Amino acid sequence: MFMLCKCGKGMTNLEPREIEGKVIQGHLCENCGSLYEITRDSSETLVRTEWVKS
């Protein structure tokens, strides 16, 4: 998945990680340092999306 940051630049996909049965896919902007995370449960249902650092 390709994402655009709030600053308008493309974001780099980070390696997905699994924590407590949920998969977290991070996206990092190399321009401004913002981090966006998409969290899904084991059935691929969207749990949460959030700007972790902006």
Question: Which labels suit this protein?
Answer:
single chain, 54 residues, mainly beta, five-stranded antiparallel β-sheet, 48% strand, elongated
> What is the helix content?
under 10%
* C-alpha geometry: elongated
Enumerate how many helices there are, as a single number.
Answer: 0
Mean pLDDT: 90
- How much of the sequence is in beta strands? over 45%
Question: How many beta-strand segments?
Answer: 5
Spatial extent as radius of gyration: 11 Å
Low-confidence stretches: none
SSE order, as H and E? Answer: EEEEE
| Head-to-tail CA distance between termini | 20 Å
**Structural classification:** mainly beta
Summarize the main sheet: 5 strands, antiparallel
Give the secondary structure arrangement, pairings included.
Layout: E1 12-13, E2 17-19, E3 22-28, E4 35-40, E5 46-53
Antiparallel strand pairs: 1-3, 2-3, 3-4, 4-5
Description:
With 54 residues, the chain is mostly beta strands. The protein is built from no helices and 5 strands. Strands 1, 2, 3, 4 and 5 form a 5-stranded antiparallel sheet that branches. Strand 3 (22-28) and strand 4 form a beta hairpin. The mean pLDDT is 90.
Brief summary of the model shown:
The chain is mainly beta and 54 residues long.
